[in-house]
Specification:
Blueprint (H helix, E strand, L loop, with lengths): L5 H14 L9 H32 L1 H24 L4 H16 L3
Helix pairs in contact: 1-3, 2-3
């Protein structure tokens, strides 16, 4: 599963939204704002683990590492939802990511 693509993650989030469509609000830009805030809260949880547990525990303690990676996955899930709320496709993101990478390579 190490080759999980953004496209697959995007599809997995669509699957979740389809399953819970009767419980969750439909995706839209206004919902995207909320999801962005929730993503930032998840990022805060990631930072909290770094702050409270430290780098060494994240690298060597299996339980701490698993928790850290789970919170990182939560941020990716919300990131995917934000993209879906604004109808950003995996292809659009890939093209823009590659272009930005090339731009960054040429900075200095």
């Amino acid at each position: 599963m190490s080759d999980l693509t953004f496209e697959q993650m995007h599809a997995m989030q669509a699957q979740l939204h389809e399953k819970y469509k009767d419980k969750w609000r439909p995706l839209s830009p206004s919902i995207g704002r909320d999801k962005l805030l929730w993503m930032m809260a998840e990022m805060g949880e990631v930072a909290d683990i770094i702050k409270k547990q430290g780098d060494e525990k994240i690298m060597q303690d299996a339980a701490v590492r698993e928790h850290f990676i789970e919170e990182m996955a939560d941020t990716l899930m919300y990131f995917n939802d934000v993209c879906r709320c604004y109808c950003i496709t995996p292809d659009e993101l890939a093209r823009t990511y590659i272009a930005k990478h090339e731009k960054n390579l040429g900075r200095w």
